Amino acid sequence: MDAHDIIALIKREVVPAIGCTEPVAVALCVAKAVETLGSLPANISVALSGNMLKNAMGVGIPGTGMTGLPIAIALGAIVGRADLGLEVLRDVNPEAVKKGEAYIAEKRIRISHNPEAPSKLFIDAKVTAADGSTARTVIAGSHTNYIRIERNGGIIFDKEFGGDNVADSDPKLSLGDVYEFAVNTPLADIEFIEEAERLNSKAASCAFDHDYGHCLGKTVLNQQGLRYLGDTPLAHMIAYTSAACDARMGGCPVAVMSNSGSGNQGITCTMPVVVFARECGADHEHKIRALIMSHLTSIYIKQGLGRLSALCGCVVASTGASAGITYLMGGDYRKISMAIKNMVANLTGMICDGAKPSCAMKISSGVSTAMLSALLAMNEEAPDESEGIICNDIDRTIHNLTSIGKEAMQETDKYVLKIMVEKE
Which residue, among 288, 339, 379, 375, has the nearest Cα to 175 in the 3D structure? Predict the structure, then answer.
């Protein structure tokens, strides 16, 4: 497999994002529609798939002190810049927030569920000016994938949507491909991944300095946390990973490095590996290769699972982290495969009930399991094909995980959304 293609894949999937990527993608879609309209609209109508609603209802919007879709939509219209992609809300300021609050109070925004959406990630934004002019933008399949742009009913851009499957141009990976790339690619070609460490570490630092979300990261390292959890590498890994999530879910106006369209996944692929590398005294090269191992393993698993699903993304990302941690422990391909089997045997079935501050707790579960799975693998322990959904072949094992999350849990996904909507 061509290394340049894999590098291009990583650079497409590991990108900076400000705020939770679901409401941010909605803000992006609205911003594009407003730019197409050419003026601030009098009204905005947004129709979303169930998974988009689920992941955007309870999360903080950076720089606002507010949660949920209405303020994200309003700010997308008022200060959003579509050219910034998932950093579309970079220019949010107090004046824009006040205007956004007024926009909401004047009931200019309508949000609806499209149960027939062709993708689990689907956004259809229509904006209308005071003079009746309209513009419409549709995003589907991935957070920045425009499939239709209209103005006054005329089509400006249109492309066929092929579904939520991996793009034909993307390399079709196996775990063997991931391992060979991470271990053997010239270091200079993959050092770009260090930007994930810089951004996500900065997010964690923000959470240690302020109160965001449920303050899980700070709690692990406070006096009680240290007393009961200990001043250990595992506690540090949990603290720094959950702190970055605290900041992101709590609305901290800081960019994080995402993975496969999710900031929490990018954080979970990054921070446990970075902290463990520091704790075990790993050199620069091994840290970089472990980060690539973690991020690319997560990308590989997401190829089969899809952008959004009923399976919590921390399952995928912490599985990537376990691969990276095992590598730092001196593990080879066989040991990394064992660690992944341990992860699948433990975390399969963890539901996604939307993006929210308590995601930090799920992430901490994933980090703990990542460490335990790596330790078991290094001690030659992993389930075999007689146990549950595990197969001797690692790629079949991963397929079993993704098929459960993508197909078998569809009814779970619908029921979770039903519960969430009925609370409103």
Answer: 339
Give Cα 414 distance to the centre of its chain: 20
| Token pair 């900031």 in the structure block, residue | 263
Q: What would the two tokens of residue 355 be? A: 């993006």
User: Who contacts 151 (Cβ-Cβ below 8 Å, separation ≥6)?
Assistant: 36, 37, 133, 134, 135, 136
Cα 341 to Cα 198: distance, rounded to the nearest angstrom: 30
Q: How many residues does the chain have?
A: 424
**pTM for this predicted structure:** 0.91
In terms of Cα–Cα distance, which of 159, 144, 182, 147 is closest to 299? 182
Q: What is the dihedral of CA 294, 297, 298, 302, to 10 degrees?
A: 170
What sign does the dihedral 164-148-77-104 (CA atoms) show?
negative
pLDDT tens digit string along 170-183? 788 999 999 999 99
User: Measured between alpha carbons, how far is residue 272 from residues 16, 152, 195, 364 in Å?
Assistant: 18, 49, 15, 10
Q: Is the dihedral of CA 64, 68, 74, 80 positive or negative?
A: positive
